[in-house]
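Example 3.2
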Amino acid sequence: MDWNVLWAAVALMLVFEGIFPLLSPGGWRRTFEQLLRLRDGQVRFFGLVSIVLGLLTLWMVL
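Structure, written as tokens:
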């Protein structure tokens, strides 16, 4: 794998992660507060779903 591709992916992730707090800091804060109220099992489930979706996207792209 080309290291430039990896760093480009990391940079895009940071850009996407920053859009919501930039455009709606209050909404981002409320969402984050709701996330803090979730049980560990719920957080793990969302983490698993995120990993699976990411792997499926990579599989379709590559």
